[in-house]
């Protein structure tokens, strides 16, 4: 398969919720992403989850008070997301079929490194936010270190990442990301994260069921972004 082929997700569709399956790391990242989301600021608050997949972040948002709307191109993933309380919308993150200003929170988790037009995807995420709304994202940096760790290494370790899931040409330029957000009214702050190495070692040998994501002092590999829409 060519890198970043969407059909990979259909081929592995029955494994989204396997805690030790090929999408295991997406579960860990979903928990870390949800931890950045505050309780809903008002009744009827809407959270739009771009590239929601099978809704892995949904259990971690339970009780926060949002109407969780998930956008994804995959119908098989959306069917699973709906089983976890997500209101699924089939669509492309480059042209989201939702009105501007509809969201109190927009999540873009592990999706920006898969899009062919980063500025357009960022513009869409910012467009969906109402003034004061929160953008939460995580993605992979366009660096040689990231290409080596996240693709050369991670895609060859059992159950860390499916082979071919990433195209190195699509990794995210952090300066472009921050600048594009700013041009659309969102001041974005970045911080690096990584799996806990102790947890990961124990998980790989079957002695742990979950791996915590922890802060790290560089955004050169995996990073989160957090920002509010000011205008």
List the helices and strands and how they pair.
Layout: H1 7-11, H2 24-34, E1 46-50, H3 58-61, E2 67-72, H4 75-82, E3 87-90, E4 103-109, H5 118-128, E5 129-140, H6 144-153, H7 174-183, E6 186-195, H8 197-204, E7 213-216, E8 222-229
Parallel strand pairs: 1-2, 1-4, 2-3, 4-5
Antiparallel strand pairs: 5-8, 6-7, 6-8
Helix pairs in contact: 5-7
Quick overview of this protein structure:
It contains 8 helices and 8 strands; from the N terminus they run ααβαβαββαβααβαββ.
Keywords:
8 helices; 8 strands; Rossmann fold; 24% strand; alpha/beta; 231 residues
Profile the largest sheet.
8 strands, mixed
The stretches of 5 or more residues where confidence is low (pLDDT under 50) are none
The SSE order reads: HHEHEHEEHEHHEHEE
Mean pLDDT: 96
* Tally of domains: 1
Separation of termini?
A: 42 Å
In CATH's first tier, which class applies? Alpha Beta
How many helical stretches? 8
Describe this structure as you would to a colleague.
This protein has about 230 residues and is an alpha/beta fold. It has one domain: Vaccinia Virus protein VP39 (Rossmann fold, 3-Layer(aba) Sandwich). Helices cover about 30% and strands about 25% of the residues. The protein is built from eight helices and eight strands. The chain has helices at about 5-10, 25-35, 60, 75-80, 120-130, 145-155, 175-185, 195-205; strands at about 45-50, 65-70, 85-90, 105-110, 130-140, 185-195, 215, 220-230. It has an eight-stranded mixed beta sheet, sandwiched between helices. Helix 4 links the parallel strand 2 (about 65-70) and strand 3. Helix 5 runs parallel beside helix 7 (about 175-185). The radius of gyration is 16 Å and the shape is globular. The N and C termini lie far apart (about 40 Å). The model has no long low-confidence stretch (mean pLDDT about 95).
């Amino acid at each position: 398969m060519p890198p970043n082929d969407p059909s990979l997700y259909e081929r592995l569709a029955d494994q989204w919720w396997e805690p030790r399956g090929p999408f295991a790391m997406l579960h860990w990242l979903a928990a870390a992403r949800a931890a950045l989301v505050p309780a809903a600021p008002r009744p009827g608050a809407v959270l739009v989850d771009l590239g929601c997949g099978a809704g892995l972040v949904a259990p971690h948002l339970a009780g926060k008070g949002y109407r969780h709307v998930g956008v994804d191109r995959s119908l098989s993933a959306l069917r699973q997301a709906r089983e976890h309380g997500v209101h699924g919308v089939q669509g492309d993150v480059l042209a989201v079929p939702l009105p501007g200003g509809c969201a109190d929170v927009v999540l873009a988790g592990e999706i920006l490194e898969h899009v062919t037009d980063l500025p357009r995807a960022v513009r869409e995420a910012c467009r969906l936010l109402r003034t004061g709304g929160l953008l939460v994202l995580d993605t992979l940096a366009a660096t040689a270190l990231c290409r080596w760790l996240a693709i050369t290494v991670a895609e060859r370790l059992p159950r860390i990442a499916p082979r071919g899931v990433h195209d190195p040409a699509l990794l995210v330029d952090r300066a472009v990301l921050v600048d594009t957000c700013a041009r659309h009214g969102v001041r974005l702050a970045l911080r690096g994260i990584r799996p806990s190495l102790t947890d990961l070692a124990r998980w790989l040998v079957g002695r742990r069921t979950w791996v915590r994501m922890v802060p790290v002092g560089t955004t050169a590999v995996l990073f989160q972004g957090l920002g509010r829409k000011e205008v």
